Amino acid sequence: MNAPETIAPPRAAVQTYPLTLNINGREHDFRVEAWVTLLDLLREHAGLTGSKKGCDHGQCGACTVLVGGRRINSCLTLAVMQNGKEVTTVEGLADGNQLHPVQQAFIDNDAFQCGYCTSGQLCSAVGLMNEGNACTAGQVRELMSGNVCRCGAYPGIVAAVTEVMGIPGHDDPARPFQPGTVPA
């Protein structure tokens, strides 16, 4: 005799919420669960994989994007909290085939090695310039300290950002940048 067939109870329907975002200059409509982060929405729902999931705890900056021109860690914000806002990812920095000045400066200053952190570094640099709080290479180092580069390309990163900002002296190679340090 066969064992009686067990039937799984019906799954409760998962509630989703409507969400509209202007991503890289184009309006997009989504329906997402309340727990979906902006990073996961960008990567899994919008197909924009430039923003990276590094630590998923807001400690590395690989997921940095711009919301309303200001930089945020997209792994730390829920997508529904950004409803109606303008989001710029690394894919939206260039103007067609014309690179953003920061992107070109990263190339010119050898500001990346493996490239995993580069999209977050680029968005953070653009956000830093939008915020207008850095006037020296030391301030750039400090205000970029939320973006970790495991390869140690910090001198090139600071040189690229200060070059675009027109800060004289760029970076001092004798004082390499270390994340979380306060410049003297």
TrEMBL record:
MF terms in GO: 2 iron, 2 sulfur cluster binding; metal ion binding; oxidoreductase activity, acting on the aldehyde or oxo group of donors
Record PANTHER family: OXIDOREDUCTASE WITH IRON-SULFUR SUBUNIT, OXIDOREDUCTASE, IRON-SULPHUR BINDING SUBUNIT-RELATED-RELATED
Listed CDD domains: fer2
Gene expressing this chain: yagT_2
Designated name of the protein: Putative xanthine dehydrogenase YagT iron-sulfur-binding subunit
Annotated Pfam families: Fer2, Fer2_2
Gene3D superfamilies on file: 3.10.20.30, [2Fe-2S]-binding domain
Keywords: 2Fe-2S, Iron, Iron-sulfur, Metal-binding, Oxidoreductase
InterPro entries referenced in this protein's UniProt entry, alphabetically: 2Fe-2S-bd, 2Fe-2S-bd_dom_sf, 2Fe-2S_ferredoxin-like_sf, 2Fe-2S_ferredoxin-type, 2Fe2S_fd_BS, Aldehyde_Oxdr_Iron-Sulfur, Beta-grasp_dom_sf
PROSITE patterns: 2FE2S_FER_1, 2FE2S_FER_2
Ranges where the 2Fe-2S ferredoxin-type domain occurs: 17-93
Organism: Duganella phyllosphaerae
